Amino acid sequence: MARPRRRRSARRAGARRALSVRRAAALGVVQGAAELAPISSSAHVALLAEELDARRRRTLEVAVHGGTALVLPWVVRDVRARLPRGILFHVAAATPPVLVGAVAAEAIERRAADHRAIAAGLLAGAAALAWTDMSSFRRHAPSSRQARDATAVDGLALGLAQAAALLPGVSRRGATLSVARARGFTREAAGDLSWVAGVPVMAAAAARGVVMSAHRGELGADLPPLATGAATAALTLVALSPARGAIERTPYAAWAAWRVAVAVAALGRGAGQTGTLRR
C-alpha cells in the first residue's frame, strides 16, 4: 500500500512543479482584471498559483505584472491632462517604494506566498478602504482638491503608501487611494493620483523582476507559458479598460468586502495546508 501512495505523492509533486500555457493564460486574465481594482492583484495571483513551486510562481508573477505594466500607461492615458505640474511630486512618490524595494526585496519575496501574510495585508487594506468610505460620508466639508494641486508632500505620502503596499496583500492601488482621500482630494483626483504615482513604480518593479529572474536563469525553461501569461494579462487589461470608470466609481466598501472574503479564503486554505502537513 505504501508504494502506490508514494507514486501518487510523486505525481502530485510533479504537477506542482509544472506550469502549462493554459494555466499561465488563466492567471494572466486574473492579473489583468484585478489590476483595475484596489484588491491586490498580486495576492490573487499568488493564491491561485500556490500549486506551483516557488521559482515558477515567482517568475509567473513577474511575467503577468510585466504584461500589465507595458499597457497601463495607454490604459490611463487620459490622466495626463490632469497631472500635477512639476517633477517633484513624481520623484517624491517614486522614491520610498524604490528604496524599500531595493533594501527589502528578498525579505518581501519570501513572504509573498504566505497565506497569513496575504490575509493580513488584505484585511489591513480592507479596513483602510472602509474607513475612507465612512470618513467621506462623515466629513462636513466635501473634499475639493484636484490632482493638479498635488505637491511634493502629497507625493511623499503616496510614496510611503506604495512602500507599505510592497507587503503581500496590501494593494498599491488601495493604499494610494486611501491616502489621497485622507489628504482631501476628490474621489476622481485620488484615482488619477493613484495611477500617476503607480505607473513608474510598477514599470520599475517589472523591469527589476525581469532582470533578477534572467540573472537567476529562471526564464528560459518556461518561456512559452510566461510569454502567454504576460500577453494575456496585457490583453485583459486593455479589453476591460472601458469599464475603468465604473470600477473607480464602485464604493470602496464593496472592494473592502471582497478583500475580506478573499482573506478568509486564504486563511482557510492555509489552515488546510498546515493540517495536511501535520497529518
Automatic annotation (TrEMBL):
Identify which top EC class this enzyme belongs to: hydrolase
Q: Where in the cell is it found?
A: Cell membrane
Q: Which UniProt keywords apply?
A: Antibiotic resistance, Cell membrane, Cell shape, Cell wall biogenesis/degradation, Hydrolase, Membrane, Peptidoglycan synthesis, Transmembrane, Transmembrane helix
The UniProt catalytic activity note for this protein reads: di-trans,octa-cis-undecaprenyl diphosphate + H2O = di-trans,octa-cis-undecaprenyl phosphate + phosphate + H(+)
- One Pfam assignment: BacA
Q: Which domain of life is it from?
A: Bacteria
Per the UniProt record, which residue ranges are transmembrane? Answer: 87-105
Q: How does it sit in the membrane?
A: Multi-pass membrane protein
Q: What is its EC number?
A: 3.6.1.27
Main location per the UniProt record:
membrane
Question: What InterPro entries is this protein classified in?
Answer: UppP (IPR003824)
Q: Which family does it belong to?
A: Belongs to the UppP family.
Which protein are we looking at? Undecaprenyl-diphosphatase
- State the organism of origin: Svornostia abyssi
Q: What is the lineage of its organism?
A: Bacteria, Bacillati, Actinomycetota, Thermoleophilia, Solirubrobacterales
